[in-house]
Write a structure and sequence with these properties.
Blueprint (H helix, E strand, L loop, with lengths): L7 H15 L9 E2 L5 E4 L2 E5 L12 H14 L7 H5 L2 H14 L3 E5 L2 H12 L5 E5 L4 H10 L2 E5 L4 H9 L7 E6 L11 H10 L3 E5 L14 H4 L8 E5 L9 E5 L1 H10 L1 H4 L6 H16 L1 H20 L11 E7 L1 H14 L1 E2 L1 E3 L9 E6 L6 H17 L5
Parallel strand pairs: 3-12, 5-6, 5-7, 7-8, 8-9
Antiparallel strand pairs: 1-2, 2-3, 4-10, 9-10, 11-14, 13-14
Helix pairs in contact: 2-12, 4-12, 5-6, 13-15, 14-15
């Protein structure tokens, strides 16, 4: 074979990359500095950070940094093995006990990432003859977990409980059934109808799993999550969430009955075959769980900022997808137009990132803004004005 000739796979991949470029869906990594702060740096330019999941501002908190540094000195840099070998260092017990106490759960397990958690939990609990009912706007990790399980995967229209009930009615009475949903949807910023989902799961003998990735730390009296906010924590069979967003650290968790956690420890491949988290991460998780319960004022401030930002963008005429949370998208439409909007934002000094298919539906490319407790109202006012000017210039609003 001549050196200039391409292998079939190489040709296929390069053709696909060229197509992604053509439809404005090719992604690139951009080096970012100070992403844990309300103002960051990209390509040497200072920008207002409206793209971070650091909702409560803990990612840059000095107390989390100190906890990590102390853990490195006490326990070393790495875990050295999986938890079932020798990687289950003492901080795991402390962090998981803090998790269980915080969530008022029977048992809990810390997992390496949110993606690993959803992939592992769903594919471990369900198999070929079972049924999974998943909201169409659920995170990709939930979809992938359902695919890996080989169960019958039924996706119901977003928050359409009538559609979900019809799917439940058509499933086998004897089959294992899992209803799974985000509590706060990561691209639209709205909430799941948890009360109705609880009613349906009880009526049709299903189990209910929630993904609290964007609700943990923010909702509930002590930041336990949206299910706790509604008083439904004892009605949700499996609660998964992450420490990498509002809690400012890394990793994920699952809480539930002891039999559930024991089974996952014994059967979840992503848990069994992954090296344990570094001690520094576990120390920061434990510290973040403690802080989020001690500082409700951060949640209050976040809610105030979020409500104000949503209201102002709505008043200007932007479509914010019915957002009810700190995630506030504005729908632009075409990929190229969304990319152009993001470029204009960055030129004006705002880090707002374009989100394109397949993360969102076709022709619903958007700028996904996220508000944090660290923002100042004057900075939000400045950003809202800039966004509205660009929106008018580009014909997104009148």
């Amino acid at each position: 074979m001549h050196s200039e000739e391409q292998l079939p796979l190489e040709k296929k991949i390069k053709t696909e990359l060229a197509y992604l470029e053509e439809i404005s869906q090719k992604r690139q990594l951009v080096t970012t500095n100070f992403a844990e702060q309300p103002w960051l740096m990209i390509d040497g330019r200072r920008m207002l950070n409206l793209a971070s999941n650091n909702y409560l501002g803990y990612a840059g908190d000095e107390r989390l940094k100190k906890a990590m540094i102390d853990a490195v000195h006490a326990y070393g840099a790495g875990a050295t093995a999986s938890r079932l070998i020798i990687g289950n260092h003492p901080l795991y017990e402390q962090a998981e006990q803090a998790l269980v106490n915080w969530k008022n759960a029977e048992a809990g397990l810390i997992i390496n990432s949110g993606y690993t958690a959803n992939l592992g939990i769903i594919s471990t609990l369900l198999s070929r003859n079972d049924f999974i009912f998943s909201d169409k706007l659920n995170h990709a990790s939930i979809v992938d977990g359902a695919l890996l399980s080989r169960a019958k995967h039924k996706r119901y229209r977003h928050n359409d409980l009538t559609h979900l009930e019809a799917l439940l009615k058509n499933s086998s009475i004897e089959a294992n059934k899992l209803i799974v949903t985000d509590t706060v949807f990561s691209m639209d910023g709205d909430f799941a109808f948890l009360e109705d989902l609880v009613w349906l799961k009880e009526r049709y003998n299903a189990i209910l799993m929630t993904d609290e990735a964007h609700g943990s730390g923010i909702y509930g009296k002590n930041g336990e999550g949206y299910a706790n906010h509604l008083g439904l924590q004892n009605k949700v069979d499996i609660q998964m969430g992450t420490f990498s967003k509002a809690l400012g650290s890394f990793g994920a968790y699952v809480v539930g009955k002891k039999w559930l956690i024991d089974y996952l420890k014994n059967r979840m491949r992503g848990f069994i075959y992954s090296t344990a988290l570094p001690p520094a991460i576990l120390s920061s998780i434990k510290t973040a769980i403690e802080l989020v319960q001690e500082e409700p004022e951060r949640r209050t401030l976040l809610q105030t900022h979020s409500e104000y930002f949503r209201k102002e963008l709505t008043n200007y005429g932007f479509n914010i997808c019915g957002s009810q949370s700190q995630i506030v998208p504005i729908v632009i439409g075409e990929n190229e137009k969304a990319m152009g909007f993001a470029t204009r934002l960055q030129k004006e000094g705002i880090a707002g990132i374009a989100v394109r298919p397949p993360t969102v539906p076709e022709n619903e490319a958007r700028i996904r803004f996220t508000v944090t407790a660290l923002h100042d109202k004057k900075d939000l006012d400045w950003a809202i004005e800039k966004v509205s000017i660009i929106g008018k210039e580009m014909g997104v609003i009148e």
